[in-house]
Write a structure and sequence with these properties.
The protein is mainly α and about 160 residues long. It has 7 helices and no strands.
């Protein structure tokens, strides 16, 4: 649910719905509060570290390409500010959020955005496969998940629906 193309797909859906809601008079803060009552806002938050190290690079590239003035790109930062003001310090923008905002500004539908993202996602797999292929069998993930005795924070519910 939180890896691969799903978060980006849900994030662009969020931005498109937020854009429609604010265009019809609803405040972004109210829209966010409503969303948080019924679902997780994809594009914000990361399981391990809330600061996404990819964003400064991507934001600079967006600026260089003149893509940083779009309404959804600006909204992405406003959403983060509102979430922080609401005390949601763990919900900082992540890569899926920024790329979804850019996709929305380019006029992509959620389906078009998802199709666009598939090659980007797959491109990261080849280097991992090449590295793993050069090692002995069983060394990539030598410990099976069921052999891990995790005693940390319990599993979070990320249930929600895409409208």
């Amino acid at each position: 649910r939180i890896y691969g193309g799903g978060p980006g797909l849900r994030a662009i859906d969020f931005f498109l719905r937020a854009g429609k809601a604010t265009a019809s008079g609803q405040t972004l803060r109210d829209f966010i509060a409503e969303e948080l009552r019924s679902r997780h806002i994809y594009g914000y938050g990361r399981p391990i570290d809330s600061c996404d190290e990819r964003l400064p690079w991507l934001a600079n590239l967006a600026r260089e390409q003149g893509l940083d003035q779009g309404p959804h790109f600006k909204m992405a930062f406003e959403v983060e500010s509102i979430l922080l003001e609401m005390g949601k310090a763990n919900l900082r923008m992540n890569y899926a959020g920024m790329t979804a905002a850019l996709g929305a500004d380019l006029g992509l539908t959620p389906r078009e955005f998802h199709i666009f993202r598939v090659p980007m996602f797959l491109a990261g797999m080849s280097p991992c496969w090449i590295e793993a292929a050069g090692k002995p069998e069983g060394t990539l993930f030598p410990t099976p998940c069921e052999a891990i005795a995790y005693e940390g924070v319990p599993r979070r519910s990320w249930r929600g629906r895409i409208a």
